[in-house]
Amino acid sequence: MKRTQQDLLPSDLSRQLSDLGYVLAQSRIARKIPQSEVAVRANISRNTVSRIENGDAGVAIGQILRYLSVVRPGATLSDVMGKKDHAVQAVKSLQRPRRARPLSNKELEEYDF
After folding, report:
1. Which residues fall in a compositionally biased region of kind Basic and acidic residues (predicted)?
2. CB 38 within 8 A of CB 68
3. Which long-range contacts (CB under 8 A, 24 or more apart) does 8-14 make?
4. Which helix (H) or strand (E) holds 6?
């Protein structure tokens, strides 16, 4: 029976790869870069980009680093996992629902018809 790289990894390492792929995908999406464009810039196939984002253990570390240099130039792997991405935070803050609050008396006076 053929065993994949994913089957050979302990579950905690497999989860870390999935987390890395998720963080990288969120960074790419926040910057509005399609997978096909990342593939061209990083000189990897679009299938490999998808595998990186899905946390595939069979992807070479060099390909992950080339992907990283396109999506987050100047960042290291430790930066990706340890620091928040400002682009992702900006997108999430725009999507966050805002609480509706009643208008103050001063605001009501301004909108008096």
Report:
1. 104-113
2. no
3. 8/57, 9/57, 13/57, 14/55, 14/57
4. helix 5-8
Q: Cα separation of 14 and 28, whole Å?
A: 21
Give pLDDT tens digits for 38-87: 999 999 999 999 999 998 888 999 999 999 999 998 888 888 888 888 88
Domains by residue range for the chain, with CATH: 5-94 (1.10.260.40)
Joined together, the tokens standing for residue 4 give: 């994949």
Q: CB count, 10 Å around CB of 64?
A: 21
Distance, CA of 21 to CA of 51 (rounded, Å): 8
Over residues 10-45, the pLDDT tens digits come to 788 888 889 999 999 999 999 999 999 999 999 999
Q: pTM value?
A: 0.72
**Residue 27 · residue 55 · CB < 8 Å:** no
